[in-house]
Amino acid sequence: MLMPRQKVPDLKLPTLDHGDFDLSADGSEKGTVVCFYRGLHCPLCATYLAELEKRTADFAERGVKTIAVSSDGEERAREMADKTGAKELRLAYDLSLAKAREYGLYISTSRGKTSIGIEEPALFSEPGLFMITPEQTLYYGSVQTMPFVRPHFSELVGALDFAIANAYPARGEYEGAV
Description:
Layout: E1 12-14, E2 20-22, E3 31-36, H1 43-61, E4 64-69, H2 74-84, E5 90-92, H3 97-102, E6 107-109, E7 123-125, E8 128-132, E9 138-143, H4 153-166
Parallel strand pairs: 3-4, 4-5
Antiparallel strand pairs: 1-2, 3-8, 6-7, 8-9
């Protein structure tokens, strides 16, 4: 399990239009929002990523970069970028399922074609949303077993405003006896 204030696993992936992504060298002032999504087959992911595309400028104003990541290959990632209108949002692809597990993401098996008629991959990761500091430590994390009821990006932007103004630390860091 990832722990707040501790280093997260390295993450190096190709992106569609923004060169190679390397979390350890992302160079953001305040951090990076990493949005793991299920893949092209997921209609909820398309809506979610379209919203993140709209909010990417809001995050940038606060010194935070954004990236969306899936285990889809380049072709399916390109289809998702076209579907969501992603221009500013970086889309990374070829996430290994082993790396997804390092981030604590749940792995699902295919159920065939989805409601939008796209075949699910044999195995894929479920959603996760993380705010990673420039030092590559976990600030915020949300991992899901289902595609439903995801954190709202507008709320995360508002929370960042509060956290930045108040130097609010990452929480959930205690690992001692309870």
